[in-house]
Write a sequence for this structure.
């Protein structure tokens, strides 16, 4: 049964939140100041020697002027932009008077929500949607009002898709069997996604004990592939262009390779990458073939099917790299060669997951040019410019040479 149309006695108005308005003014102030100062230095500073401005002199001011114009438009938009629930319609006004979009209550088909805000869709597909961005205040209140009188189209689509799943005999012979399988698939993906996220964060921020953390992630990845194959198309890796879907999404197959890759890049410094690509790609191809075996969900008659396969290959190859390199280094029993080099420069890179420490060192026997290398924090703190460091070069279990830097004894 369709929802009853709203009866509104007084109109309600919503505007951009104060936080976004402050951001707009700060944005305008920043780029206006930088632009004025840049133009002054380029054209009015008495110390300049150029009598005629060249193209390069004009390029930066022009870019800054464009940013200033963008900031002005942003401020005007935030001042004028408003969403109104009127007595018989809803409408939104943009930065200029002509930017008005209106839908009567009887014209509204329903609404959707996503990361960009709320979308109100008309029944007539030739009419444009109304978007209420996240920069509006009281977004939750707007959603609550819409929910009272208009259908949530995302929810309707999910319910319809779920009915299609429950009617699909490929997922079970009876309705109860299909329903039970869907419930189990949702539980399995929920557990795998949550556990993988927790262990992934553990690996990124505090990988101790190291071998156990890395081993758990690798095992979880294998279990995730097994779960995907076990449910025979009921579990998806992505929503395939849909914003929301009734199919359980297995995000662990993406989270785990990225977590392992971050840890691998942070912890191991390869001297030569020539022998790392082939085994990584072989692992990726092997996993892809296992993944595609009897997989009827990928439609090779459409271009998107090939893009999906390529995306899976990239994910599996990242996992291949992130397993090949740790196995090469952790199980390396070769006797290290030791070389000497001097420290030329030191720097710290501030990242979201902590500081990364770098030393620029002089050429050494295997490296003919000065090079910047990552080091552990303790090593970074223990050396200064012109200090001598020891370079330990190992051959690697898989014949992929790697190095570690220590303070010279």
């Amino acid at each position: 049964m369709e929802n009853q149309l709203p009866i509104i006695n007084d109109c309600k108005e919503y505007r951009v939140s104060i936080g976004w308005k402050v951001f707009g003014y700060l944005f305008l102030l920043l780029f206006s100041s930088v632009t004025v100062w840049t133009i002054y230095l380029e054209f009015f500073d008495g110390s300049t020697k150029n009598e005629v401005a060249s193209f390069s002199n004009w390029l930066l001011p022009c870019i800054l002027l464009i940013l200033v114009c963008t900031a002005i438009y942003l401020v005007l938009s935030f001042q004028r932009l408003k969403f109104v629930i009127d007595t018989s319609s809803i409408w939104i006004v943009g930065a200029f008077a002509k930017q008005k979009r209106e839908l009567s209550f009887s014209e509204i088909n329903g609404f959707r929500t996503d990361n960009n805000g709320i979308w109100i869709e008309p029944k007539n597909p030739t009419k444009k949607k109304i978007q209420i961005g996240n920069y509006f205040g009281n977004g939750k209140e707007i959603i609550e009002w819409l929910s009272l009188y208009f259908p949530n189209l995302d929810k309707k689509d999910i319910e319809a898709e779920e009915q299609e799943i429950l009617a699909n005999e490929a997922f079970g012979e009876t309705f109860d069997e299909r329903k039970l399988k869907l419930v189990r698939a949702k539980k399995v993906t929920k557990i795998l996604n949550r556990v993988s996220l927790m262990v992934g964060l553990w690996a990124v921020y505090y990988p101790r004990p190291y071998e156990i953390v890395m081993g758990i992630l690798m095992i979880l990845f294998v279990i995730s592939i097994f779960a995907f194959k076990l449910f025979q198309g009921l579990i998806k890796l992505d929503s395939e262009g849909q914003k929301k879907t009734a199919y359980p999404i297995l995000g662990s197959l993406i989270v785990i390779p990225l977590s392992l890759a971050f840890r691998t890049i942070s912890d191991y410094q390869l001297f030569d990458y020539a022998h790392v690509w082939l085994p990584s790609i072989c692992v990726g191809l092997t996993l892809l073939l296992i993944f595609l075996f009897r997989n009827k969900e990928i439609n090779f008659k459409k271009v998107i099917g090939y893009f999906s396969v390529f995306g899976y290959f990239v994910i599996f190859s990242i996992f291949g790299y992130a397993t090949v390199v740790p196995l090469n280094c952790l199980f390396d029993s070769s006797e290290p060669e030791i070389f000497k080099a001097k420290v030329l420069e030191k720097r710290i890179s501030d990242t979201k997951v902590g500081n990364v420490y770098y030393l620029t060192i002089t050429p050494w026997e295997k490296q003919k040019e000065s090079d910047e290398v990552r080091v552990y924090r303790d090593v970074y703190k223990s050396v200064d410019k012109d200090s001598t460091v020891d370079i330990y070069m190992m051959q690697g279990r898989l014949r992929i040479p790697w190095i570690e830097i220590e303070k010279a004894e």
Notes: The chain has three domains: 12-149, 164-330, 337-407. The chain has a mean pLDDT of 86. Residues 164-330 form one domain. The two ends are 81 Å apart (CA to CA).
